[in-house]
Amino acid sequence: MKELGELNGNEELFQKATKEYFTANINNPNSYTAILKVDGEIVSAGSIVFFIRPPSLGNLQGKEAYVMNMYTAFDHRKHGYSSAILKHLMQYGQKSGVNRIWLTASSAGKSLYQKHGFIEYGSEMEYKFEKK
User: Fold this and answer.
1) Which of 47, 60, 46 shows the shortest CA–CA distance to 98?
2) Rounded to whole angstroms, what are the CA distances from 119 to 34, 38, 127?
3) Coil, strand, or helix at residue 122?
4) Cα–Cα distance between 6 and 8 in angstroms, integer?
5) pLDDT of 36-59, one tens digit each?
6) Beta strands in the chain (DSSP E)
7) How many whole angstroms separate alpha carbon 43 and alpha carbon 81?
8) 65 and 101 in contact (C-beta within 8 Å)?
9) pLDDT tier at 121, thresholds 50, 70, 90
């Protein structure tokens, strides 16, 4: 959030709220966080949150997933770590029964998501698994 310029001087409050959220939801079955370590240091992470919407023709069970908090430390970018995290989250989402994953991408992140099949819809991007 800091790199995106979205904290507006509220970094301490944001860090506190984020820590409280992840501490409270660490065992919540409706959220999942993947981390990638290099030499014992966390260098990349991403989360997915599951929720149920009313059924639609494209999603009769209504279960969807939202990808959030994708981040790779600046010095560790361009090594495929974000791709590895995203692939893992997508596989986890598919195994959990979702057929749609969506997210809001930064301008810097759009190419990553497009590379993995996400399509832009307004301010969001989505990926739909093929129906079996």
Assistant:
1) 60
2) 23, 30, 6
3) coil
4) 6
5) 999 999 999 999 999 998 988 878
6) 31-38, 41-52, 63-72, 100-103, 119-121, 124-128
7) 8
8) yes
9) confident
- For residue range 61-70, list pLDDT tens digits in order: 889 999 998 9
Residues composing the chain: 132
The reported pLDDT for the residue numbered 62 is 86
* 8 Å CB contact between 103 and 68: yes
Kindly calculate the radius of gyration of the chain based on its CA atoms and give it in whole angstroms: 15
Q: How far apart are CA 31 and CA 74, in angstroms?
A: 25
The whole-angstrom separation of Cα 40 and Cα 13 is: 28
